[in-house]
Each structure stands twice: as C-alpha cells, then as structure tokens.
C-alpha cells in the first residue's frame, strides 16, 4: 500500500510539474525569507550580547571630589556587579582627548582652564550581562554624592532595543503571513490535483478504498513539496551567507565581525515546520473538497 501511495504521488507531481515547481519555489522563497530573518536576529543577538559584555560606565565626578578618589574608588568597587574602577584625572582626560584629536590641536591651545571633569572608568563583571543589570549598577553609582553624572551609552541602548523590538514584531507578523500564504498555495495545488483526478477518486470510493488510501498520496505530495522547498530555501540562504562571509574577509573585517549560520537543529526545525505547513495545506484542501 505504501509503495502504491508513493507511486501515485510521483505520478501526480510529474503530471502537474509546472504547478508543483511553482509551489516548491514559493515555499523555498518563504523559507528563505523567514530563515534570513531568524539568522539576522540570531547574529544581532550575538552582537548585542558582545556589546553588553564590553560595556563600561563612565562616572563623572563633582568639582573637588577627586580629593576623596581613593575612598570613592573603594565605594564604587563595593557595588555588586562592578569588577574594577580606574580613576582618570581631568588633566589625563585632556591629554587623551588632545591625542585623539591631533588634527584639531588648535582647539585646545587657547583654553583658559581644563573644562573636563575627573572621572572613573568602571569595568563591569561578565555576569552583569543584561541591560537591566547595567542600568541598576549605573543608578547606584549615580546615587553616590561625589558623582555628578554617569554615561554608558544609554541613549544608544534604548534606541537599539526599540528598533530590535520593532524588527522582531514586524518579522513575526511577516513570518505569519508568509506561512499562511504558503499553506494556501499548497491547498490550491492539492485542489487542482484533486480536480484532475476526480473521476479516479470517485471510482476508488465505489470499489471500497479506505480514506487513508485515498488521502495518502496527497499528503505525500505536500510533505515532499515542503521538504524540497525547505532544502532549496536553506541552500540559497547558505550560499548567500558564504558569499557575505567571504566579502567580509576580503575587506579585512573578519576579526571585527563574526557571523554564524543556523545550527543543524534550527535547520531541522525549519524543514519540519515547512513540511508541517504543507501538510496542513493538504489537510485543509482534502477536508473541504473531498468531504472525507
């Protein structure tokens, strides 16, 4: 029985090769777009985590607070989540700024006094990884009476988090629409195949063929289309990914930008999801048009 069902499924695919190919291409495009979005979010998450682990907090001191710098250093380092605090005097900060802006050295020649404050450069522990923890540590530092202000790129953090949430919500909505579209296309393809074999289906009913025997070839077709579409979509994504990595390496950015592809588990889940969507499309079409 299984061999017969596979044979009928292959016959339908060959007889409707244009429609089947178009369906597989549509599923492949859907898988490509969804997988590319997932890949983007995975690498963006890695970049965000790396950025968080390298986050440093600058604590700017009030005037005359440098007199108590040793005591303040101990107070800062006693805060949970802080690994080390390095004192930077205002003169050291000005020299560093002058060295960084050596092409604009004339800007510092007519300064009457140093406008920069004393500060502490604070290194966080690796365990202080989330932005909520970083904000909590920054708030505790700011509560110290000697500290006038803290800076850790909060504006950038808020902007990046908002954009990430927006992209994630948009991506999820797009994924949902694409999955529904793929299921609808598979359902329509199955319907066309059923119409082309309507007489054969009626004859099988009359001779007592079971529901499973009639349905099985269509389900096999849907699963095959889902599998072929997933393999094609992931294959194109892998080729584009390798081309992008090669381009990054050629421009000497390989050490700065690290990309990773989907894991075997994620690719297996993507393939299974594609096959499931196609199976659901077949199920909806069979339930509606065969009334079985």
The share of residues in extended strands comes to: 5-15%
Q: Could you give the order of strands across the largest sheet?
A: 2-3-1-4
Helix content: 55-70%
Shape summary: elongated
Give the end-to-end Cα distance, rounded to a whole number of Å: 19 Å
Task: Work out the number of β strands.
Answer: 4
- Largest sheet at a glance? 4 strands, antiparallel
User: Which spans have pLDDT < 50 for at least 5 consecutive residues?
Assistant: none
Mean pLDDT: 76
What is the number of helices? 9
Summing up helix and strand content along with how strands pair, one would put the structural category as alpha+beta
Instruction: List SSEs in N-to-C order.
Output: HHEHEHEHEHHHH
> Cα-atom Rg, whole angstroms?
31 Å
Task: Give an overview of the whole structure.
By secondary structure, the protein is an alpha+beta fold. Helix content is 69%, strand content 8%. The protein has 9 helices and 4 strands. It has helices at 2-15, 17-53, 69-77, 90-100, 131-142, 154-196, 198-206, 211-250, 264-289; strands spanning 56-61, 82-88, 119-124, 147-151. Strands 2-3-1-4 form a 4-stranded antiparallel sheet. Helix 2 (17-53) runs antiparallel to helix 6. The model has no long low-confidence stretch (mean pLDDT 76).
